[in-house]
Amino acid sequence: MATKAARELPSQELILPGTRSCAACGLMLTYRHALKALDEGKTIVAVPASCMTVLHGVYPITPVKVICINNPFAATGASVSGIVAGLKAVGKEGYTVVAFAGDGGTYDIGIQSLSGALERGTNFIYVCYDNEGYMNTGTQRSSASPAGAITTTTPVLAKLQHKKDMIGIVEAHRIPYIATASPAFPLDLYDKFVTAKSISGSRYMEVHAPCPPGWGFPNKDLIKMGKLAVDSGIHVLYEIRDGKFSLTSRSLRLAEKGRKKSVADYVVGQTRFRKISDEQVRRLQEFCDERWEELVKRHNKDNG
Question: Which residue numbers in the chain have pLDDT < 70?
Answer without folding.
Answer: 1, 4
